[in-house]
């Protein structure tokens, strides 16, 4: 086990270094990412780390995609999408907490692993639907009023963005399937990820637009909602 942790730590350090050099993460964010990844590894092994890496790769690619267009329309994230530590925790914190819970309560490993996947599924769906939906969404609507609204604003969604988000959740569920088997949990992961993604838009429209909470809090809550949704789905199916 020590050798496995040594290997994953080495891999994570290399990945963190490259992420900083490529401008994807700040130094503190990279360190945070390594710590959270180790907790996820504790609970979900290499599969958990691969799910998180898949989210990071897809999210970074989506954020960078057509950056010049986003900047021209003033839709691009600050610092060209370079993530801070708070953003890393907001997206991966729930999954890391579930990994820690597996260490503390190993009897519930099966449940917590699905929660890890659901949280990462939601983070992936949210990032892809936000970053690509603003580019490819033909009609954008406020998720609360269902009236047409400006793409890229908090709480604004499009059909195209929603389906892109579902695709992201499916990819995470596939990674889960390769690691832990092909079963009904894959469906729960996709549904939970989609629920979390929609919850993100609702929270953005109701709370973030009014500056009651920030984007990091919204992202943390959407992954938490997804994780809890997966628990409800599993219990209803048991």
Features:
single chain, 238 residues, mainly alpha, two-stranded antiparallel ribbon, 8 helices, 2% strand, globular
Largest sheet: 2 strands, antiparallel
Shape: globular
Overall pLDDT? 92
- Tell me what portion of residues adopts beta-strand conformation: under 5%
Provide the domain count.
1
The helix content is over 70%
Distance between the termini: 33 Å
Radius of gyration: 17 Å
Order of helices and strands: HHHHHEEHHH
Helix/strand-derived class?
mainly alpha
Strand order of the largest sheet: 1-2
Low-confidence stretches: none
If helices are DSSP runs of H or I spanning 4 or more residues, what is the number of helices?
Answer: 8
> What is the count of β-strands?
2
What report would you give on this structure?
The protein has 238 residues and is mainly α. It has one domain (46-75, 91-237). It is built from 8 helices and 2 strands; from the N terminus they run αααααββααα. The chain has a two-stranded antiparallel ribbon. α5 (109-136) packs across α8 (215-237). 48% of the residues are buried. The model has no long low-confidence stretch (mean pLDDT 92).
